[in-house]
């Protein structure tokens, strides 16, 4: 437990290497929490003992922390974005393999699957995968796990995903669990041929967007579903090129959903999925996800889960102690304002006092925590 506390403290300040744990060894505040920071080599050996069962315990803890945040928020409907991100690997880490790696083509990598709650900016669950794993692999099982852990009679869940998750198995899983979904569809010929038919009527909306609806199914699907089609005019230079195809002057986008939102609202709601990409970037840059890598695959999974646990603990603190306007501020901003500050630890017979500078502008936050 001591090593886990050490790692959580390290992630709290944003370490990207185990060597940086030495920064905590003589920290008086860390010592007051009865944490004995060991040498990085000792912590590395401890992390090397993790396996599937023990890393799953961290995932269970992350679910509990998220559920606590969800309960505090009193939300009755949430949107969960599922997305994946590539983590480049330079060494000989277990489980890393060549796969889709846009920044470093041909390099070995990991592929991490994330699930975030958009309304709370919170990490729900996720896991590290081999770099050659297909985007949607494990998504249906993850969705079942999420619903089993957080669903209640008074909570409505909508799952939002990009076209990498456009798969009937995933859709059927969500439907069977009584949840909503909004997934960007791939532009298969079955859909494009119907959307470009001259009999289809599009309704004009905002920002040059036009929308319509189709109730149809793909070739191997079991039943018809609601597809929202959005089209926008191509740039003038592209439209100037002659084409014999009907509707070729437009770019078409398809979305499958079981929500009751109006067509244009479906498209606008999907566009908010970009928030999840920002949350992933924050996890990578502010929590150092993908920077602190060890040889063992399960050690890397354990480190990832601890990083995301720290991420949610930041959110819990912000929810309880900060003004709502500061809740969505980035972690690096939070650290500069509330973590990386000068203070003196004073011990008396009965108390341990953290004395802050008289000019420190956010002293009220700490005073509020002690009330």
From TrEMBL:
InterPro entries referenced in this protein's UniProt entry, alphabetically: RNaseH-like_sf, Tnp_DDE_dom, Transpos_IS1380
Span of domain Transposase DDE: 9-370
Name of the featured protein: IS1380-like element ISEc9 family transposase
Organism: Salmonella enterica subsp. enterica serovar Heidelberg
């Amino acid at each position: 437990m001591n090593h886990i506390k050490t790692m959580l403290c390290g992630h709290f300040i944003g370490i990207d290497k185990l060597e940086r744990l030495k920064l905590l060894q003589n920290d008086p505040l860390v010592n007051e929490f009865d944490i004995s920071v060991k040498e990085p080599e000792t912590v590395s050996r401890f992390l090397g003992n993790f396996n599937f069962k023990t890393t799953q315990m961290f995932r269970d803890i992350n679910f509990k922390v998220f559920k606590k945040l969800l309960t505090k928020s009193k939300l009755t409907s949430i949107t969960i974005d599922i997305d994946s991100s590539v983590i480049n690997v330079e060494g000989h880490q277990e489980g890393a393999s060549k796969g889709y790696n846009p920044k470093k083509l041909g390099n070995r990598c990991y592929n991490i699957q994330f699930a975030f709650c958009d309304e709370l900016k919170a990490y729900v669950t996720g896991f590290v995968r081999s770099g050659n794993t297909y985007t949607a692999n494990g998504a249906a099982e993850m969705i079942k796990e999420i619903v089993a852990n957080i669903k209640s009679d008074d909570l409505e869940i909508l799952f939002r995903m990009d076209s990498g998750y456009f798969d009937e198995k995933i859709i059927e899983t969500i439907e069977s669990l009584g949840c909503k979904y909004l997934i960007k569809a791939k532009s298969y010929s079955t859909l494009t041929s119907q959307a470009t038919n001259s009999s289809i009527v599009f309704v004009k909306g905002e920002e040059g967007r036009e929308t319509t609806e189709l109730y149809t199914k793909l070739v191997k699907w079991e039943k018809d579903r609601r597809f929202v089609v959005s089209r926008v005019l191509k740039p003038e230079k592209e439209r100037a090129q002659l084409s014999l195809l009907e509707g070729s002057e437009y770019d078409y986008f398809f979305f499958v959903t079981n929500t009751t939102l109006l067509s244009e609202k479906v498209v606008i709601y999907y566009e908010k999925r970009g928030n999840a990409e920002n949350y992933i970037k924050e996890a990578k840059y502010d929590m150092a996800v993908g920077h602190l890598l060890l040889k063992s695959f399960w050690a890397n999974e354990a480190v990832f889960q601890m990083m995301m646990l720290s991420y949610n603990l930041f959110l819990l603190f912000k929810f309880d102690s900060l003004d709502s306007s500061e809740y969505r501020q980035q972690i690096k901003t939070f650290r500069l304002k509330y973590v990386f500050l000068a203070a003196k630890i004073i011990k008396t017979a009965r108390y341990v006092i953290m004395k802050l500078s008289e000019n420190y502008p956010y002293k009220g936050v700490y005073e509020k925590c002690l009330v």
